[in-house]
Amino acid sequence: MSQAGHRIRREGMVRDLKSRKIRDPRVLEAMERVPRHLFVEGKLRQSRAYSEFALPIGEDQTISQPYIVARTTELLEIDSESSILEIGTGSGYHTAVLASLARRVYSLERIPSLAKGAIRRIQELGFGNVKIQIFDGTVGWSDVGPFDGILVLAGAPKAPAPLLDQLRLGGRLVIPEGSKERQVLVRYRRLEQGLERTELEPVTFVPLIGRHGWEA
Ligand code: SAH
Question: Where are the domains of the chain?
Answer without folding.
Answer: 3-203
